[in-house]
Amino acid sequence: ALLNGLCKVGKINEAEVLFHEIMYRDLPADLVTFNTIIDGYCRIGNIDKAFTVKEEMIKKDVSPDTITYNILIRGLCKLGRAQNSMHLLDELIEKKLKPDIFTYNTLLDGLCKLDDRRGAEQLFKYMFENDVLPNVLTYNILIDRYCKDGYLEEAFKLMEDMKNNGISPTTVTYTTLVCGLCKTGQLEEANALFKDMLDKGLPQNVVSYSALIHGFCLHSRMQEAVALLKEMEGKCLVPN
RNA sequence: GUUCCAACG
User: Fold this and answer.
1) How large is the angle between the packed helices A136-148 and A152-164, nearest 10 degrees?
2) Protein-covered nucleotides on strand B (Cβ within 7 A)
3) Which of A20, A48, A58, A103 supports an S-S bond with A99, CB 3.0-4.6 Å?
4) Distance, angstroms, CA A169 to C1' B4?
5) CA A71 → C1' B9, Å?
6) Which own/partner contact pairs does A4-7 have at CB distance under 8 Å and 24+ positions apart?
7) Which protein residues have their Cβ less than 7 angstroms from some atom of strand B?
8) Could you tell me where the beta strands, DSSP code E, fall in chain A?
9) pLDDT digits over A174-230, tens only?
10) How far is the CA of A24 from the C1' of B6 (A)?
11) How many Å apart are CA A193 and CA A163, to the nearest integer?
12) From the alpha carbon of A213, which nucleotide's C1' atom is closest?
């Protein structure tokens, strides 16, 4: 817990000192401790040290679990190495561990961010075949990819799919779509969808406002952008 | 107690 606290505030160096102390004195370290420090390294992009710690835990007879793999997979994905992380998925399965929804979402996001929509679609099918059902994040990730590719129709179709599967869209879902509509110049639609969030009882946060404001700015509609900024301040949302 | 998604930068 202490290590996690340090890692979260970007104090990986302090966490590192503490971790070395634990290793040096041969103090007991459990699975969560190892996972936490591995995640700390991944978050600063030091994937090599993350893997080194994975080796260390094995030496201490602590077996990596699905969360360990999820953390490493995410670390690789954030470095744009989603392909490498697919090998980790294979390793995870070889070790008789079960990939969970976090594993799939992380991989899907990594593939999507590499513009590999095909790969993502394949993995999406694969997860169904392995009895892992998509959650709201899974849909959000895919919707984002379709939006960025300009396939707004497909994106909206996915939102319908998620509803049909009993999953409610969130602020992130709407913001993603608002952003997609802005990028394709469909500002009126974006504005309408943004308003829709309120009717659906979803909070409009700083990110949703920013997406729409940015859309208006890109299309030189400054007066509307400023109006939104004021509206946002009126809601005590702090512009960043 | 540890892991997954959206704007701008």
Assistant:
1) 170
2) 1-8
3) A103
4) 16
5) 26
6) A4/A36, A6/A40, A7/A36, A7/A37, A7/A39, A7/A40, A7/A43
7) A 1, 4, 30-33, 35-36, 39, 66-68, 70-71, 74, 100-103, 105-106, 109, 135-138, 140-141, 144, 170-173, 175-176, 179, 205-208, 210-211, 214, 240
8) none
9) 999 999 999 999 999 999 999 999 999 999 999 999 999 999 999 999 999 999 999
10) 42
11) 16
12) B7
**pTM over cut 0.90:** yes
**Residue A130 token pair:** 């392995």
CB-CB contact of A178 with A194 (8 Å)? yes
Residue linked to tokens 């300009």: A150
Å from the A62 CA to the B5 C1'? 30
- Give the CA angle between residues A104, A96, A76 to the nearest 5°: 40
Task: Find and give the residue nearest to B9, measured CA to C1'.
Answer: A240
